[in-house]
Design brief:
heterodimer; A: 285 residues; mainly alpha; MetI-like fold; 2 domains; 11 helices; B: 332 residues; 13 helices; 81% helix; flat; disordered N terminus
Chain lengths: 285, 332
C-alpha cells in the first residue's frame, strides 16, 4: 500500500494523536517505578516522581527525550562499528544476498515442479507443509552446524535468510512459470521457438511479477532469519548482534531504538525490492 | 474432467497394465539394502568400509529413481487421494532411511547431525520436558496471543472499514508495521511484560494483529458494487448491508489472514523465547540445546513445533472450508 498525497493529512493526524497519547502513557507506566525508586532513596537528578518518570534509567516506556538521545547515541558516528548504520547495512546486505540465493535455488525447484509431475507429487506436499512450520526454529542449529563446516562470516546468515525466503519464492516462481496463457504459448510455437527459447523469452519474464510478489512477502521473513542468525552465533556485526548485546545489558532505551531501526530497515528493504521490481519489469507500469 | 480421466485411463491401458515392475523392484531393493545396513550397523561405532558406503549411495540413488518412475506413473494415471499422497510419503520414508544409513556409515557425531532414530528416542525420553515446553509455548503464548490479536483486530477493522479518515490515516501504518521483524519487537516486550509467557503472548498478539487488520479491511471494502446496488434495491439497512454482504465478503480474506497468523504466532512465540524465558518453552529449549550441541533435543523440539503448527493450520483450513464453502476458490 503506497502512501498517496491525499493520505498525508489523515496520516499526519493519526501520528499527532499517537504522539499526544504517548506522553500520558509514559507517565502512567513509569510513575509507579519512579515513586518506588524515590522511596528506596535512589539518587536521581530530578524532583518529584512526575519529573523522574521521564529520566528513569530503566523505564517501561522511554520518554521522548530519552528516545531521541538514544537515537542520537546509537546512530552516530555513522561509520562506527558500534553504531546502527553500519550494522543495519550489513544485516540488509545479508538479507538481500539471501533473497538472491533463494531466487536461484527457488528457480531450480520451480523448474522441477513445472517440468515434472512426478517431482511435484513427491515434493510439493512437503514444501507446502514446511510453510506452516516455524522454520526459524532451525536457524540456531543451522548456524552452529555451518560454523562446524567452516562457513563463517556473512554467508551463513545469508544462507539462513535464503532458507526462510526459499519457500514463497519457489511457489511464486512455479506459479509464474505456468502463468503465460495458451495464446502466448501458441504464438511461440508458430514462431518455431525451441523449449529453451520459450522458457527464456516467455516463461521467465512472465514469472517475474510473481517472483517479486513472493519477494515482498518473504523479505520481512528473510530479515528475521538474518537477525536470528546473527544472534545465534558469535558475530561481529549486524542488528542481531546489537539486539542481543542490548538485551543482555538490559538497556531499555537501546532496545527501543533498535526496534525502530529494524522496522525502518524492514520498510527500506521492502521498498528496495519494489524499486528493483520496477527496474526489472518496466512493462508492468 | 470425466472425459479427460477416461481418455487418460485409455492411453494407460494401452501402455501398461499395472505400475512399472522395474520401478517397484528398484524402490523395494534400495530400501531393503538401506534397512539391512542400518540393522547390521546398529551396534557398530566404526566408519563403514568404502564398498558399503558406495553401495549405500547407489541404493539411495536406485530407490530415488524407482520412486521417480513410480511417481510419474501415478501422475499419469487417475488415482484416489491416498494414491496421490503415496509418492510424498515414500519420499519422506526414503529421506529418513537414507539419512539414518548414511549418517551411521560415516559415523557423523551425534553432536553435529543426530540420526532420525536418535531424535525419535530423545523425543520419547524427554517427553515430559517437551510436553511442559509445548504447554508454555503453544497454549500459553501462541494460542492466547493469537486469540487476543485476532480479537482486537476484528473490531478495529470494522471501525476502519466504516471510516474513510481511518482508512487513509491508519492503513499505510498498518502495512509498514507488518514489516517490523519480530526479533526486534521481542526484547522490548520482554522488558515490558516480564520473562514469563505474557511478554511472548504480547509479541504474538502484535504480529497477528496487523495481517488480520490489513486483510479484513480489504475484505470489507473490496466488494462487488453490484452486490451493494442489489442490497440497496432490497432497501437493506446499513447494518444489514454490513452483516449480509460485507462480512461474508470479508470471510475468505479473514481466513487467509488466520492461516498466515498461525505460522506467525508460532514464529513469534519461539523467537520471543530466544530473548528471555523462565526456563521452559520450545524456543528456549532450542536455543539452549543448540548452544551446547544437543541437536537431538533441538530436532525433537522442532518436530513437536512443526506438528503443532501443521495441525493448527489444518484446523483453520478446516474451519475455512466449513464457513466459506460457498466461495469460488473452494467450490468444485
Amino acid at each position: 500500500m503506497r502512501a498517496r498525497l491525499g493520505n498525508l493529512g489523515p496520516m499526519a493526524a493519526v501520528a499527532g494523536i499517537v504522539v499526544l497519547l504517548y506522553l500520558p502513557l509514559v507517565v502512567v507506566t513509569n510513575y509507579p517505578l519512579a515513586q518506588r525508586a524515590l522511596e528506596r532513596g535512589a539518587v536521581m537528578d530530578c524532583d518529584g516522581p512526575l519529573a523522574c518518570a521521564f529520566v528513569l534509567r530503566n523505564p517501561v516506556i522511554p520518554a521522548p527525550g530519552q528516545l531521541l538521545a538514544g537515537i542520537y547515541n546509537l546512530m552516530l558516528p555513522l561509520n562506527s562499528p558500534n553504531a546502527i548504520p553500519l550494522n543495519a547495512f550489513w544485516t540488509g546486505v545479508e538479507t538481500l544476498v539471501g533473497l538472491g540465493l533463494a531466487a536461484l535455488v527457488g528457480l531450480l525447484f520451480a523448474l522441477g515442479l513445472v517440468l515434472s509431475r512426478a517431482f511435484e507429487l513427491s515434493v510439493l506436499p512437503w514444501i507446502v507443509a514446511s510453510q506452516t512450520v516455524p522454520i526459524i526454529a532451525l536457524a540456531p542449529m543451522l548456524v552452529v552446524l555451518l560454523g562446524q563446516y567452516g562457513v563463517q562470516g556473512l554467508l551463513p546468515k545469508a544462507i539462513i535468510a535464503a532458507y526462510i525466503a526459499f519457500f514463497p519464492v519457489t511457489i511464486g516462481l512455479a506459479k509464474g512459470l505456468r502463468s503465460p496463457d495458451s495464446l502466448a504459448l501458441d504464438l511461440m510455437r508458430t514462431y518455431r521457438a525451441t523449449t529453451v527459447q520459450t522458457f527464456v523469452k516467455l516463461r521467465l519474464p512472465a514469472s517475474l511479477p510473481y517472483l517479486f510478489t513472493a519477494f515482498r512477502i518473504s523479505t520481512a521473513a528473510a530479515l528475521i532469519g538474518a537477525i536470528i542468525a546473527e544472534m545465534s552465533t558469535i558475530s561481529f556485526f549486524g542488528l542481531g548482534k546489537m539486539l542481543s548485546e542490548n538485551a543482555r545489558a538490559s538497556d531499555v532505551v537501546g532496545t527501543w531504538v533498535l526496534m525502530i531501526a529494524s522496522a525502518v530497515l524492514g520498510i527500506l528493504l521492502v521498498a528496495c525490492v519494489g524499486w528493483v521490481e520496477r527496474l526489472v519489469t518496466p512493462w508492468r507500469r | 474432467m470425466a472425459t479427460l480421466n477416461s481418455s487418460l485411463a485409455g492411453t494407460a491401458r494401452r501402455e501398461t497394465a499395472g505400475p512399472p515392475l522395474t520401478a517397484l523392484l528398484a524402490l523395494v531393493g534400495g530400501h531393503a539394502l538401506l534397512l539391512s545396513f542400518v540393522l547390521l550397523w546398529w551396534e557398530t561405532t566404526e566408519v563403514a568400509p568404502l564398498a558399503w558406503r558406495t553401495s549405500l549411495y547407489l541404493a539411495t540413488l536406485l530407490a530415488a529413481l524407482g520412486l521417480a518412475r513410480l511417481a510419474t506413473w501415478i501422475a499419469e494415471h487417475p488415482a484416489g487421494r491416498l494414491a496421490r499422497f503415496l509418492p510424498a510419503a515414500l519420499t519422506m520414508i526414503l529421506t529418513l532411511l537414507a539419512a539414518e544409513a548414511l549418517l551411521r556409515a560415516h559415523q557423523v557425531p551425534a553432536g553435529l547431525i543426530p540420526t532420525p532414530t536418535a531424535v525419535l528416542t530423545v523425543l520419547w525420553q524427554a517427553r515430559d520436558v517437551l510436553l511442559q515446553d509445548t504447554w508454555q509455548t503453544f497454549v500459553m503464548e501462541a494460542v492466547i496471543g493469537f486469540l487476543i490479536g485476532v480479537g482486537v483486530a476484528l473490531p478495529v477493522s470494522g471501525l476502519i472499514a466504516r471510516s474513510g479518515f481511518l482508512q487513509r490515516g491508519l492503513m499505510p501504518y498498518a502495512a509498514a508495521f507488518s514489516s517490523i521483524p519480530i526479533p526486534a519487537l521481542a526484547p522490548v516486550f520482554v522488558h515490558m511484560f516480564g520473562l514469563d509467557w505474557q511478554s511472548k503472548a504480547a509479541v504474538v498478539a502484535v504480529t497477528v494483529f496487523f495481517p488480520v487488520v490489513v486483510n479484513v479491511v480489504r475484505g470489507l471494502l473490496e466488494i462487488d458494487p453490484r452486490l451493494l446496488d442489489l442490497m440497496r434495491s432490497y432497501a437493506a439497512s446499513d447494518r444489514e448491508v454490513f452483516t449480509k454482504a460485507r462480512i461474508p465478503n470479508a470471510l475468505p480474506f479473514f481466513f487467509n489472514a488466520l492461516k498466515l497468523g498461525t505460522t506467525l504466532a508460532m514464529i513469534g512465540a519461539i523467537v520471543g523465547e530466544f530473548f528471555g524465558a523462565t526456563g521452559t518453552g520450545l524456543g528456549f529449549r532450542i536455543q539452549i540445546e543448540a548452544g551446547r550441541f544437543g541437536f537431538d533435543i533441538v530436532w525433537a523440539a522442532i518436530i513437536v513445533a512443526s506438528t503443532l503448527g501443521i495441525a493448527w493450520f489444518g484446523l483453520v483450513a478446516w474451519l475455512e472450508r466449513r464457513f466459506t464453502s460457498w466461495h469460488v476458490s473452494l467450490r468444485e
